[in-house]
Specification:
CATH class of the largest domain: Alpha Beta
Mean pLDDT: 91
CATH architecture of the largest domain: 2-Layer Sandwich
Shape: globular
Number of helices: 9
Distance between the termini: 20 Å
Largest sheet: 5 strands, antiparallel
Radius of gyration: 22 Å
Length: about 325
């Protein structure tokens, strides 16, 4: 049995499901606790884990060989629970119980929630990547305006970009090059830490999709107006499969192993001089925009990893 934690109408999931041969179940965390139930037995009489599904079916988690932890949505509490304190308590208890289910399971995870949580932290990524021999841009994370000003001045010839740790729908922040407008508001850095990085001019942008030991690298040659962030120009970019240098691929494998990630969407930038610069790894990053334009069999690789329960990767 393969368990997919995601939600309906997810094209990335649908592409993989088309290649699965084993029984599978897709569950949406938003269905806890209003529409999905938990039964976890422990003690001398029983030791078993179940998710109660709609229609009276039960999913025995001890029979699950692989879990694809793809996308998660917030729990939805029963609307009959109206007291705010009671709702807060119910949400907290649901969170504890569901996390307990995941941590108690003996299965192959793509990726385990703890691995995702560790790898998502950009500051940690930067230090680990550097120590593994990957080249990264000169970087500063700070809420100190003076430190930010000094960093920007030091890189005035190449320029500096500023990034958000995580984009949220309520307050989106695009990656931008620091210009006069940003400099005029630099004091606002004191309100929350910002990622500043030396600007790296691109010859190519790479999305490397790592799947249980396989590496699928896709190159994007974008229009000049998308030089800061290639994602806005994906539709007009020249796209092709790309052969990573052996030493870069080896270091990316070491990065994935360090974080315990079976899946990761890795962004690199290739400079005009041919240097490969690591930018980040997203443990649940999208892959379709790369696989569909480059023709690489990423959905098939994900399905195969889930079928075999990971294996030695």
């Amino acid at each position: 049995m393969i368990l997919i934690v995601s939600f309906a109408d997810n094209a990335h999931v649908e592409k993989v499901i088309a290649h699965l041969r084993s029984p599978f179940e897709v569950i949406d965390l938003a269905d806890f606790p209003a529409r999905l139930g938990i039964r976890a037995y422990a003690g001398p009489a029983s030791d078993s884990l179940f998710i109660d599904l709609p229609g009276g079916r039960a999913l025995a988690l001890d029979e699950v060989r692989s879990v694809w932890y793809r996308r998660q949505r917030a729990f939805e509490l029963d609307p009959a629970l109206t007291d705010e304190t009671a709702r807060l308590f119910a949400w907290s208890e649901t969170q504890e119980a569901v996390q307990g289910l995941w941590y108690a399971m003996d299965a192959f995870w793509m990726n385990h929630p703890l691995a995702d949580e560790h790898a998502l932290r950009k500051l940690t990524q930067h230090r680990v990547a550097t120590r593994l021999g990957l080249t990264i841009p000169d970087t500063l994370i700070t809420n100190n305006p003076e430190a930010a000003a000094e960093f920007i001045a030091r890189h005035k010839d190449s320029g500096v970009v500023r990034k958000a740790f995580r984009n949220i729908a309520e307050a989106p922040r695009e990656t931008r090059k620091v210009g006069e407008e940003e400099l005029a508001h630099l004091d606002a850095v004191r309100f929350a830490p910002v990622i500043f990085q030396q600007y790296i001019p691109p010859a190519l942008d790479l999305r490397v999709t790592a799947v249980a030991g396989e590496m699928f690298a896709t190159a994007f040659r974008s229009e000049a107006r998308f030089e800061v962030d290639y994602r806005g120009g994906i539709g007009s970019a020249e796209v092709s499969a790309y052969d990573l240098p052996e030493e870069v691929e080896s270091r990316l494998r070491a990065l994935m192993k360090h974080f315990g990630l079976a899946y990761g969407a890795i962004d690199l930038r290739v400079t005009p001089e041919g240097e490969h610069v690591f930018l980040e790894v997203n443990p649940a990053g999208e892959y379709l925009f790369a696989s569909e334009r480059s023709g690489q069999p990423i959905p098939e690789a994900i399905a195969a990893a889930l079928e075999r329960g990971g294996g030695d990767w």
